[in-house]
Amino acid sequence: MDKPSVDFLNSLGVPFFKIGSADTTNLPLLKHLCKYNKPLVISTGMTTEADVCKMYDEISKESQQIALLQCTSCYPTPPHNVNLNVIKAYEDLFPEAVIGYSGHEVGIGISLAAVASGAKILERHITLDHSYKGSDHKSSLEPDEFQNLVNEIRKIEKAMGSHRKEFQECEKPCYEKLGKTIVASRFLESGTLLNEDAMDVKVSVKKGYDPINYYDLIGKQLKTEVEKDEPISSVNFE
Fold first, then answer.
1. Is the pTM of this model over 0.90?
2. Of 185, 182, 189, 174, nearest to 234 (Cα)?
3. Which of 16, 105, 47 is nearest to 113 (CA)?
4. CB-CB contact of 44 with 71 (8 Å)
5. Per residue in 137-159, is it b (16+ CB within 10 Å) or e — as a string?
6. DSSP output for 84-100
7. How many other CB atoms sit within 10 Å of the CB of residue 23?
8. Cα separation of 42 and 75, whole Å?
9. Alpha-carbon torsion 160, 164, 168, 171, what sign?
10. Which value, to the nearest 10 degrees, does the dihedral of the CA atoms of residues 12, 28, 91, 48 take?
């Protein structure tokens, strides 16, 4: 890309500029792009962390609309050269930027992992046929593969869910069938002081105290009788 190309693209009304890895460190070009006040999506192949940091420090003075894409400029990219962990490193280094991934690997698996790793933008090249001449076609996606990638990303977006661990409504049938509870290991008379010999943990259709409360019950006195293998619950202490 050069400055006349930038001016031409802007005349077409493009909503943002995508900068390839060959221009990641091209500060004069990047500063020219900033004049149009449009988002910059910058791939970072063929660079070091120091290069990216210096570029970002310079360009962020003139633009607050920057996205950085982890990228390895190798066609196709072997898995061990992808370095998806850079996505998290970029999130820490550039908290004001949007972080993404530009992939040149074969298939969609690594790109899906990039999304699960936090990539907010995903770039993949598209081809009509992998057998066409040129190394880029091997690492690109055919239309049906691209559609599959998008479909799988939509599933991942749903699957990421919440940061909060909670018991979910859909787990109820499994809990009712397999969930364990604290039961009496033998017939227990009213007045029994509970100890480890008096209690067991078993699968039971009827539910009492969850085993997480096992040691909290030691030393508690029963106010009712409890048959062997019957769940121990709050009603036994009323």
1. no
2. 182
3. 105
4. yes
5. bebbbeeebbeebeeebeeeeee
6. THHHHHHHHH-TTSEEE
7. 17
8. 18
9. positive
10. 130
pLDDT at 135: 85
DSSP 226: B
Closest CA to 56 of 4, 19, 7: 19
The answer to whether 55 and 30 have CB atoms below 8 angstroms apart is yes
Over residues 17-35, the mean pLDDT reads: 98
pLDDT at 68 over 90: yes
- Residue 94 and residue 116: Cα distance in Å, rounded? 19
Amino acid letter, 102? S
Hey, how many other C-beta atoms are within 10 angstroms of the C-beta on 121? 16
Which distant-in-sequence residues (6+ apart) come within 8 Å of 10 by Cβ?
36, 38
For 112, 171, 215, the CA distances from 156, given in Å and listed in that order, are 8, 20, 39
- Say what the pLDDT of residue 90 is: 99
